[in-house]
């Protein structure tokens, strides 16, 4: 990737409940829309370039290939939801119930306010093994944040589930 725009194209809101317009590089924005409309395999690099209004070589100047576009979008999305979830948990403090509520709320708000980004999760099957492993590690981190909170709640008698996972 020669001159790839920053991977951190979605800057988390100052407050985890706040959502402004999606601030993606135009190439990523159009790639997201195309992937959501036609699926990863149904979208060509030429389709994306046409949507953006650039040539295919110009698109390749910024992103190595279509896989790099999908990987960047998925990782950007997961990092944003993780940042928001961490902020919600920090705001809630040490109480497991408050932390759990905040984290679940942050995830639901993310999915409601970033539908296009959240919907891309269905395309993880299209990731190459190395890219998929990185993405799954981020997703697993989010899952462990929730599980750790539930387990803390069980220890404190706030939650009573026999199966925390």
CATH topology: Tetracycline Repressor, domain 2
Task: Determine and state the CATH class.
Answer: Mainly Alpha
Shape: elongated
Overall pLDDT: 92
Helix content: 55-70%
Number of strands: 0
Total number of domains: 1
Please state the CA-atom Rg, rounded to the nearest Å. Answer: 18 Å
- In CATH, the architecture is Orthogonal Bundle
Give an overview in words.
With 165 residues, this protein is mainly alpha-helical. The chain has one domain: Tetracycline Repressor, domain 2 (Orthogonal Bundle). 64% of the residues lie in helices and 0% in strands. Helix 1 packs across helix 2, helix 1 packs across helix 4 and helix 4 runs antiparallel to helix 5. The N terminus is likely disordered.
List the helices and strands and how they pair.
Layout: H1 26-38, H2 45-52, H3 56-62, H4 66-92, H5 96-113, H6 115-119, H7 129-155
Keywords:
single chain; 165 residues; elongated; 0% strand; disordered N terminus; mainly alpha; Tetracycline Repressor, domain 2; 7 helices
Please give a quick description of this structure.
64% of the residues lie in helices and 0% in strands. It has 165 residues and is mostly helical.
